[in-house]
Specification:
The complex is a heterodimer of chains A (263) and B (311). Helices cover 20% and strands 33% of the residues of chain A. Chain A is built from 6 helices and 16 strands. Chain A has a 7-stranded antiparallel beta sheet with strand order 4-3-7-1-2-6-5. In chain A, strands 11-10-9-8-12-13-16 form a 7-stranded mixed beta sheet, with helices on both faces. In chain A, strands 14-15 form a two-stranded antiparallel sheet. In chain A, helix 5 (177-187) runs parallel beside helix 6. The longest helix of chain A is centred in the last third of the chain and has 13 residues, at 203-215. Chain A is globular and about 55 Å long. By secondary structure, chain B is α/β, with parallel strands linked by helices. Chain B has a single domain, classed as TIM Barrel, CATH 3.20.20. Helices cover 31% and strands 20% of the residues of chain B. Classes of the chains: A alpha/beta (263), B alpha/beta (311). Bound molecules: flavin-adenine dinucleotide (FAD), flavin mononucleotide and FE2/S2 (inorganic) cluster. Flavin mononucleotide sits between chains B (25-28, 50-51, 74, 76, 78, 104, 133, 136, 170, 197-198, 221-222, 225, 247-250, 270-272) and A (229, 235, 237).
Chain lengths: 263, 311
């Protein structure tokens, strides 16, 4: 689906907890064509400050509505959180490629896909989980501490099996989500081989996931973040190193196969 | 009822006739492909390609961009597929647009690369003009060609010898006297000058105590540099006779008008394409409306129409 620049009416914009917000806007075009992994690029305020758009993943769609899940981390996201219901947002989307959905492996015992979410990385993975819920994904969510764990209720509501990891042990497995992943793959090697691993989160986590997937001979798909000026593939600003040279995170990504990346 | 004039937006840049004076700046529009979803490219006055070099270039290490107050820094490092692949893969779709295509070219080491590129492009009918990028701040050079009047004169003369095509020389704002450099380009046979390329800039992450972009420093663009650009256009306009293509922080019709009034015959929209992909098209209609409102039949009335302050 080709992206478009639209003025989209804000249907809701609510604090969920702490600095985390949910925003819903009206756009039939984006809602009906968006694929998991894609994002929108938003001009959070009129004028030149801040100058650039802010990229946010599509968290979900319902009818003609698009749902975003964001954390207020700086001036741009703060301005977004001040935008009111009924106002119009300048949105470009849907942008980027998308996760390739798990294929049916012939002659292999059914394996659930594994989703690994670190921090805000849960945002696009909820949309993915919804699209592939029939394959009963196993979701691993990681955070520093229990209060920072995101979206476990949403994943559960979609029928996913959810396991959590916190660095300080305040919830679930004590340690990194990637350590939990290793443990699971080791323990339950026969039952949880995983048809594919989908991950989104901080870069060190994604690198670790890529390595683990590779060692276990499982396909991995990572959703990357990079600073973006245009978000549509024109400026060559958001590149990541791959086996076939630099690729644009905004256009050739944000989803890349672990095998492809050479970061 | 007052009869409104129908303004004419056509303008001549050296050997090049444009149906309107709004183009898109090199490096901010790729090769056009990314913008077809948002605008009708055929409406543009001209398209300037990302700078092309003889050999393919990977470009600089990421991160390559960061936001700054009312602007941004970039250090792309002229990532491009090289001239052969450009001609084979990018030019065909540009040709089909039926609007003037201006190919931006640069050398990395040897100035002779400019002549290699110019010779090759000279043979292609659909290439309407060449823009000499002698002002890219992201190649880790101590000195740019366009930071020296003599170097500028020599380089433009060199290219002038090998092509009859319209030559536009793109200059850096990081100089003591822009008119001195513009005069050198004019004397060497450049048909026009493009003002300005990005200004050298730097931004630091104080928590990490690291530069925000991997190449330490980069080129500043966007509204933050507009006053610098407008002044340079005005200064050059007072000294040279060849047309000026003005750019630097043009976001909308108002900011585009500043450049025309200061003396630009055409303008380029750069960073604004990233924020509003429709900016260039909106400026074309905004210009028309402004001229009609002010009873201007053609652009020549507007260009360089700056007056002294009076109360
Ligand atoms: C494809 C993609 C999808 C994203 N999805 C989400 C999401 O669903 N929810 C969410 O909360 N965040 C998401 N992010 C991160 C989000 O874009 C940044 O948090 C946001 O741009 C910060 O803006 P700011 O002005 O509040 O912060 P500042 O730090 O003040 O921003 C300064 C500049 O840095 C850029 N920037 C800062 N952090 C990031 C980052 N992590 N990635 C890219 N650019 C950054 C900003 O866009 C801006 O240009 C996503 C990023 C990308 C690239
Ligand atoms: C991301 C980016 C890439 C650029 N690449 C080039 C380039 O390849 N060649 C060139 O001559 N100018 C390049 N420029 C400079 C622009 O063409 C323009 O001169 C400058 O950005 C000022 O205009 P603006 O403020 O409207 O962007 C680039 C600018 C940006 C922001
Ligand atoms: S942000 Fe411009 S190419 Fe990706």
């Amino acid at each position: 689906m080709r992206p478009a620049q639209i003025k989209a009416k804000i249907i809701s914009n609510k604090r969920f907890k702490d600095s985390y917000w949910h925003l819903e806007f009206e756009s039939r075009l984006i809602a009906e064509s968006a694929l998991p992994g894609q994002f929108v690029n938003i001009k959070v305020a009129d004028g030149v400050e801040p100058l650039l758009r802010r990229p946010l993943s599509i968290h979900g769609t319902a009818g003609s509505r698009v749902r975003l899940f964001y954390e207020v981390v700086g001036a741009g996201t703060r301005l977004l959180s001040n935008r009111r219901v009924g106002e119009f947002l300048d949105v470009i989307g849907p942008l980027g490629n998308s996760f390739s959905l798990p294929g049916k492996l012939q002659g292999v015992k059914f394996q659930p896909p594994i989703l690994v979410a670190g921090g805000m990385g849960a945002a696009p993975l909820v949309f993915l989980a919804k699209k592939i819920r029939s394959s009963r994904p196993l979701v691993l969510i990681g955070a520093r501490t229990k209060s920072k764990l995101l979206c476990s209720r949403e994943f559960k509501a979609l029928g996913c099996q959810v396991k959590i990891a916190t660095d300080d042990g305040s919830g679930g497995f004590k340690g990194r989500v990637t350590e939990l992943l290793i443990q699971l793959l080791r323990q339950e090697i026969s039952s949880v081989r995983g048809s594919a691993i989908y991950a989104c989160g901080p870069r060190p986590m994604l690198k670790a996931v890529t390595k683990i997937a590779c060692e276990n001979n499982i396909d991995s798909q990572l959703s990357l973040e990079e600073h973006m000026a245009c978000g549509i593939g024109a400026c060559l600003g958001c590149v990541v190193a791959t086996k076939s040279g630099y690729k644009r995170v905004c256009k050739d990504g944000p989803v890349f196969s672990g095998k492809e990346l050479t970061w | 009822m007052v009869k409104q004039v129908k303004p004419d937006l056509d303008v001549r840049i050296g050997k090049l006739d444009l149906k309107n004076p709004v183009m898109v700046a090199s490096g901010t529009f790729g090769y056009g492909e990314e913008f077809v979803d948002f605008i009708d490219l055929k409406k543009l006055g001209a398209i300037v390609t990302k700078t092309i070099t003889v050999s393919p270039r990977l470009g600089n290490l990421p991160p390559r961009t960061c936001e700054t107050p009312a602007g941004m820094l970039n250090s792309i490092g002229l990532e491009n597929p090289g001239i052969d692949k450009f001609i084979a893969e990018k030019l065909p779709s540009l040709k089909k647009l039926d609007i003037p295509v201006i190919v931006s070219i640069a050398s990395i080491e040897d100035p002779d690369e400019f002549t290699v590129l110019a010779r090759q492009l000279d043979k292609i009918k659909e290439v309407s003009a060449l823009e000499l990028n002698i002002s890219c701040p992201n190649l880790h050079k101590d000195k740019l060609i366009s930071q020296d009047a003599k170097d500028t004169f020599e380089l433009v003369s060199l290219v002038r010898k090998v092509t009859g095509k319209c030559l536009i020389t793109k200059l850096s704002p990081n100089v003591i006297s822009i008119s001195e450099i513009a005069l050198a380009a004019e004397a060497a046979g450049s048909d026009a000058v493009a003002l300005i390329n990005t200004l050298g800039g730097m931004s630091i992450d104080v928590d990490k105590r690291q530069p925000k972009i991997a190449s330490w420093s980069g080129g500043l663009s966007g509204p933050a540099i507009r006053p610098v650009a407008v002044k340079m256009v005005w200064e050059a306009h007072n000294k040279i006779k060849i047309p000026i293509i003005g750019m630097g922080g043009i976001m909308d019709t108002q900011s585009a008008l500043e450049f025309f009034i200061a003396g630009a015959s055409a303008i380029s929209v750069g960073t604004a394409n990233f924020i509003n992909p429709r900016a260039s098209i909106e400026i074309i209609s905004g210009l028309k409306a402004y001229m009609a409102d002010n009873n201007m039949r053609n652009l020549s009335v507007l260009i360089g129409s700056l007056k002294a302050c009076k109360d």
